Amino acid sequence: MANARNQNVVYGADQIQVLEGLEAVRRRPGMYVGGTDAKALHHMVFEVVDNAIDEAMQGRCDRIVITIHKDESVSVEDNGAGIPVDIQKQTGLPALTVVMTKLHAGGKFGGGGYKVSGGLHGVGVSAVNALSTWMESTIKRDGKVYRQRFERGVPVTEVGVIGTCDPDDTGTIQTFMRDDTIFQVLEYSYATLSTRLREMAFLTRGVDIALIDERPDPIREINFHFEGGVKSFVRYLNKNRTVLHEPIYVDMEVESTQVEAAIQYTDGFSESVFAFANTINTPDGGNHLTGLRTAVTRLVNDYARKQGFLKESEPNFTGDDTRQGMTAIVSVKVLEPQFEGQNKLKLLNNEVRYHVENAVGEAMGQWMEENPRDARQIIEKSRTAYRAREAARKARDLVIRKSALESLTLPGKLADCSSRDPKECEIYIVEGDSAGGTAKQGRDRRFQAILPLRGKILNIEKTSLDKALANKEIQALITALGTNIGENFSLDGLRYYRIILMTDADVDGAHIRTLLLTFFFRYMPDLVEGGHLYIAQPPLYRVGVTRTENGKRKRISDYVYDDAALLKLRQDVGDENVRIEQRYKGLGEMNDEQLWDTTMNPEHRTILQVSVEDAAEADRTFDMLMGSSVPPRRRFIQTHANQARLDI
Predict the structure, then answer these.
(1) 275 by DSSP, 3-state: which?
(2) Which of 461, 504, 614, 617 is catalytic?
(3) Mean pLDDT of 195-211
């Protein structure tokens, strides 16, 4: 067996490939910018902006301008010191050329150029250069303006002087055009960029950050400037919530680690905590987040014991108890940050945990002593959370025990699939029994399960977990998925790798879908982060289209999924050649074959995968749409009313 296998494999020195320069980036973009999708496209901009932010953190820059040009090229301009252009001794090349074309080259590896930076890995701007059709670097330094041009990472000009400037006028302008042979998505999202730039402005207080979009007419522009730092960030996140006190603010240096944090409790039920290291968003947290949470739990319990709110016979509040309704930001500046992966999802420095814990502990302890009334509100909220957690545990146990006695732990309304391999199974969460019946008839029973929900589930943004668990529709949903919920949640029990929300294409359907999305975002976020949650796209119209083929007119029926697609179809074939045969107000109006063909057949359907690009903005949006404050929701509806699809 071994000999036969060896004879069939040809493997020698000729099979060893050496990728020179930036070719590795072009061959494996996922290793450097996370892929070739929309998120990776925007990551290109953020990598360049991060360099400008690093200049700001050194006190050399107070203005950054990001411009999206009409042709989708992007410029990032700062008034920092400007990238050096003199000869770098190690390579014999101009420093600008080295920075733009060499991986792991820059002033952030202990050379003294940067005390604190987000660009630890040193592949940021060179990776952007490699993944761009062309890129131009313009440097203002020492009274001269320098420029060098690159194409797909390769210099096509020398570093040359193109003009003069005031000796005090310094800075860098990086302009690049993403390579359309690499990226799947080619258009930048104004909303995505503005959201992240707002975060950067919060985290780099006193710096002006402007975003200019030249694509629409008139040009769009937004400017960000915040003197309050993360305190302003917390106020922004809580502006639609009822807060219990002014933010608790921490700004302290502990053994060369700068710790800035803000904490504010609200009357809500969710914890909203976001962590940053050297202004880099770390969505998977890390030791700075652990330090913050540990400090809060310890301080609340110590204060409760000291003031007699917790008796000796009573157990301590858990971390979840002490953080219910808490909104917090922790931002650290670290000399040598250790991130997990090039995309910097998690901060690994062990010492940072104790630096944050000490800084937050000291500041929050002093605040609680100076603000006893507000501190007592936090204690009472923790006690209420403890009681709700106990009630939720009993309700959850009841759900599990009840499920074990019914239909082999599955709810009776669930039409399960025959396959038992979760990776090939999917479940449709369907609005109403009528649509559920049609879906059950039209599905492929081998791998598709159907769970119809009756009416609208609870708005969990306004409801504690124990009350949510008492809702029969939520009970059925939790039991069907098999993951449990809350502290007992586990993806190991997930029975379907694709969870597809299928609601009517009307206002009520959109509301039900939003309620479900809120539930998953708050109580099962790992399902969203793991890419398991999808939204079905049922058609809005069935149309008759008349086309001319070989001199003969032929009429066929087709499906159109939204008004924009209908308008495009009319423009393509002529308005007189399109006739609306049916407008689907609900899934129940389709027969089983139509539902299968348009919405459930994997070979033809379109489903949207739910993802969260920015957790802080998603948190604020869900609270605005589903929370208790009415005015911001009214403003949102008035602003976007012209985009709604109404049944008249």
Answers:
(1) strand
(2) 504
(3) 92
202 vs 194: CA distance, rounded Å: 12
4-45 pLDDT, tens digit each:
444 444 444 444 444 456 777 888 887 777 788 888 899 899
What pLDDT does 21 receive?
60
* Catalytic member of 260, 357, 431, 614: 431
The domains found in the chain, sorted by start residue, are: 23-223 (3.30.565.10), 230-388 (3.30.230.10), 406-538+610-643 (3.40.50.670)
Tokens describing residue 418: 């025959």
Torsion sign, CA atoms 212, 216, 217, 220: negative
pLDDT tens digits, 60-92: 899 999 999 999 999 999 999 999 999 888 888
Query: Out of 251, 351, 508, 613, which one is annotated catalytic?
Result: 508
CA distance 175 to 11: 43
Amino acid at 23: E
Tokens of 41: 């496209």
pTM of the model: 0.67
Active site residue 421: no
Residue 478: name the closest of 448, 523, 528 by CA. Answer: 523
Pinpoint the alpha helices (H) of 371-506: 372-404, 433-442, 465-469, 472-481
State yes or no: is 506 an active-site residue: yes
